[in-house]
Amino acid sequence: MTEKTFSSFKEFYPYYLAEHRNPQCRLLHFIGSTGVIMLLIYVLITQQWMYAWGLPICGYGCAWLGHFIFEKNKPATFKHPWYSLLGDWVMYGQILKGKLSVFR
């Protein structure tokens, strides 16, 4: 099986969205990303740096649950970590703007 390669994020993002068709998976991504933002703000304000370890656990934990339970696929993070991270935040913005639904 040939691994798909991408030469740009613009080329990657349609693939990323295809891997996130399930609204419950997108919702879990949204919850995880919101948790990351909230935890990051907390860590920065309180300077409780030891809690920064929770950032990837919060973000990836929720997202990976969505993939394993609802999408039944492997997260794009495993093969395309940087594009996938950027895709998470682009998708988050699209959900906030109402361009992508988490409720179908």
Would you give an account of this structure?
This protein is an all-alpha fold and 104 residues long. It has one domain (15-96). The chain is built from four helices and no strands. It has helices at residues 9-18, 23-46, 54-71, 81-96. Helix 1 packs across helix 4 and helix 2 (23-46) packs across helix 4 (81-96). It is globular.
Mean pLDDT: 94
Overall geometric form: globular
β-strand amount: under 5%
- Note the main sheet: none
Helix count from the secondary structure assignment: 4
Q: What is the count of distinct domains?
A: 1
Uncertain regions spanning at least 5 consecutive residues:
none
- First CA to last CA: what distance? 32 Å
> How many β strands by DSSP?
0
Radius of gyration, rounded? 14 Å
Primary descriptors:
mainly alpha; 104 residues
Which helices and strands, and how do they pair?
Layout: H1 9-18, H2 23-46, H3 54-71, H4 81-96
Helix pairs in contact: 1-4, 2-3, 2-4
Outline of the structure:
This protein has one domain. The protein is built from four helices and no strands. With 104 residues, it is mainly α.
